[in-house]
Amino acid sequence: MIAEYDARLWYDQIPLRRSVRAYDSRKVPDDTLDRLRPFLSGFSGLCRGARGVLLDDAGDVFTGIIASLGRITGVSTVAVFIGDTSVPEHMESVGYLGEGVILQATSLGLGTCWVAGTFNRNCTASRVKLGKNEKVVAVTPLGFPVEKEDAGHRLVRSLANSKKRKPLEAIFGGLPPEKWPPGCREALEAARLAPSALNRQPWFFEVTHGEITLSVQGAGSGYGSLKRLDCGIAMLHFEVAAKALGLEGHWELLKPPHVARFILHESGSGISQARG
């Protein structure tokens, strides 16, 4: 049976989620992990081509990294996000599924951090059973944040935050906001808050009558791109907010440079206003 998520619960976690790199070494209780496991196998058809696996005693996933500044420390449990490369949209699927796991973990009081580059990929791959066309795409530590970060972790956090997020006006086009259905602005704001590599926010939303189209901005929009991983994360944020606020619709995947189109349902709140 496919897991079902609580849209209001996850929506409430979006502003609370932050990247945590320093943990206090406490083991995550089994009953907490049991509330996370169902989402590793997917919670929507959009999770096709993606899955997650939990690894215990997995601090070695973050060892052997040349750059030690800001390295993940004190972690025991790691969620590994795996993509099936035979599915063209596997990167966006991994982003979508992985962010669901992260929002659920946040609701359980756990710290997390998307890591798609600086981890021991060979070590991680050796500890999970990969299918013929599968690859490890990213990981997140799962644990309890330390009360006070050291200077190295504080520096990394300040560098990550040094580039402000784009304003909402920079990530959408199409209809003016006064013609949007109720809940659309909040859903776009939730997408704006999605984490992305180097905080680059490589997404653009085109709002038209009855639908919102998500595309990759700039170069690197093809299948398998890390930018599509980031867009998958933004897709989930938009969907979660839309569901929580009564903006009914569903995603339809598209070919590059587009990513997906959110089609508003006729019964969705405010759809007639969007067409007015």
TrEMBL record:
SUPFAM superfamilies found in the cross-reference section: FMN-dependent nitroreductase-like
Pfam families associated with the record: TM1586_NiRdase (PF14512)
Domain (Putative nitroreductase TM1586): residue spans on this chain: 11-242
MF annotations from Gene Ontology: oxidoreductase activity
InterPro entries from the UniProt entry: Nitroreductase-like (IPR000415), Nitroreductase/BluB (IPR050627), TM1586_NiRdase (IPR029478)
Name of the protein in question: Nitroreductase
